[in-house]
């Protein structure tokens, strides 16, 4: 009898399948168009202000919205809730040292707690902080400490159609020019984001990171990494940069961090937990200073606003995050949605990033002026179409100039579709692609928005609008 079996499944296909099975489910409630229109109007046409129960597929953020593993949930039962010296802190500390390489950590309630402590420690009024594109909360903490953010990212990052593999790279000429203009003594550190969020989740290369380190060392400037999605960045280095394909993601992550002096971390991303973060440093004096500030803003330096169970879950999540099968399938799921949109002719940021697909609202809605918030309008319409929540990354997120009161310029006008880790299936993403296609077909009928309520800081969280 002949062997009629099909050819063997290749490793690439196996890696593309989710490396987990579903053990617990959370029911979702589908809503009617009328219900969605009432909900979004009540929320002031701001998807962030919607009740979560009115959202069918929530792609607002990948921060704290992932699913923990059975081992993480089991670890929650091992929480040592001692006020000082919890054993879970020492487990977390040892895990960070093993996989990120930093000598000291101070736990924080989430990443912005670490940003706050770092900014208060290092920035003086009149300082300048260069970085590879801003992130709203990071820049706000720098500004509240008296600093001025200066963008030194490569120009290619501002072209959504540019498919260069490392659009998160620092333009060394821009960095050097800033040093020459203001003096190294007024630059406390350069702030580097791994997989730059506002550029579409774009990574920085190892070669560029090494060159930044050399230039910073030549002028005595610290290098600080936003490590929230550094594992995803390490994966892109493995896949896209010469000389790294044979290396483990875990080893690349360590090599990245070794080129920096400190890092802020939101454990709600790569570390696969719903709350938590840390500030990591190598310098003993900085660690003591950070520990003292943590006492004022977060909690004791061995818990930093977290329960022992949260630190245990984060330590276990770090170990899971660097597993090859996990990170490959995680990024592949994001790429899948990107492919579905590309097939439909939807304008997106290229190449697709590690945590989200970004719609290019300038090309999607070219007839809506930027001051009428086209990206935010697109996010509103996507919710009304199918109950899908997303977030604007454009002129609304950029905020206003504190001196002039004018909108800060935003070269990119994007809608972020952030995919939570280990939460949604391929069917969910198929629905997202279909809903976006339906909106795209009637895009010319859409009109912009008028801003009617504007908070002073991080306005996109609580702003309210009216339809024009």
TrEMBL record:
The modification N6-(pyridoxal phosphate)lysine is found at residue 269. Keywords: Lyase, Pyridoxal phosphate. Homotetramer. The keyword Lyase applies. Residues 58-433 form the Aromatic amino acid beta-eliminating lyase/threonine aldolase domain. Its cofactor is pyridoxal 5'-phosphate. The keyword DNA-binding does not apply. GO terms for molecular function: tyrosine phenol-lyase activity. One of its GO terms (biological process) is tyrosine metabolic process. It catalyses: L-tyrosine + H2O = phenol + pyruvate + NH4(+). This is Tyrosine phenol-lyase. Its EC number is 4.1.99.2. Belongs to the beta-eliminating lyase family.
């Amino acid at each position: 009898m002949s062997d009629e079996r099909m050819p063997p499944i290749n490793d690439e296909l196996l890696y593309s399948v989710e490396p987990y099975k579903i053990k617990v489910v959370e029911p979702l409630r589908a809503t009617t168009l009328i219900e969605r229109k009432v909900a979004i109007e009540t929320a002031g046409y701001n998807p962030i202000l919607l009740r979560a129960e009115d959202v069918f597929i929530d792609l607002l953020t990948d921060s704290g919205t992932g699913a923990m593993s059975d081992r993480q949930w089991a670890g929650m039962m091992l929480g040592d809730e001692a006020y000082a010296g919890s054993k879970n802190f020492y487990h977390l500390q040892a895990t960070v040292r093993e996989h990120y390489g930093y000598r000291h950590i101070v736990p924080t309630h989430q990443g912005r707690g670490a940003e706050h402590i770092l900014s208060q420690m290092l920035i003086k009024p009149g300082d300048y902080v260069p970085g590879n594109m801003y992130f709203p909360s990071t820049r706000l903490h720098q500004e509240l400490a008296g600093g001025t953010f200066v963008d030194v990212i490569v120009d290619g990052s501002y072209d959504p159609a540019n498919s260069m593999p490392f659009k998160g790279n620092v333009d060394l000429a821009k960095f050097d020019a800033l040093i020459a203009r203001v003096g190294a003594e007024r630059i406390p550190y350069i702030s580097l984001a791994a997989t730059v969020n506002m550029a579409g989740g774009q990574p920085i290369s190892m070669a560029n990171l090494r060159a930044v380190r050399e230039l910073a060392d030549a002028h005595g400037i610290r290098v600080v990494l936003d490590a929230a999605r550094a594992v995803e960045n390490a994966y892109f280095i493995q896949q896209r940069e010469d000389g790294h394909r044979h290396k483990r993601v875990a080893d690349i992550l360590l090599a990245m961090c070794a080129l920096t002096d400190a890092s802020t971390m939101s454990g709600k991303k790569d570390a696969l937990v719903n709350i938590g973060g840390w500030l990591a440093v190598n310098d003993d004096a900085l660690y003591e200073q950070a520990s003292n500030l943590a006492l004022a803003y977060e909690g004791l330096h061995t818990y930093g606003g977290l329960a022992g169970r949260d630190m245990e879950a984060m330590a276990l999540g770090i170990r899971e995050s660097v597993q090859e099968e996990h990170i490959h399938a995680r990024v592949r799921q994001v790429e899948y949605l990107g492919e579905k949109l590309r097939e439909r002719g939807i304008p997106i940021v290229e190449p697709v990033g590690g945590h989200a697909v970004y719609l290019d609202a300038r090309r999607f809605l070219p007839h809506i002026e930027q001051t009428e918030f086209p990206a935010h309008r697109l996010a509103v319409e996507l919710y009304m179409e199918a109950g899908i929540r997303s977030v604007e990354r454009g002129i609304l997120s950029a905020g206003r100039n504190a001196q002039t009161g004018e909108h800060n310029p935003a070269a990119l006008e994007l809608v972020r579709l952030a995919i939570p880790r280990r939460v949604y299936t391929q069917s969910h993403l198929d629905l997202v692609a279909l809903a976006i296609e339906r909106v795209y077909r009637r895009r010319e009928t859409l009109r912009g928005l008028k801003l009617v309520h504007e908070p002073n800081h991080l306005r996109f969280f609580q702003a309210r609008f009216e339809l024009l």
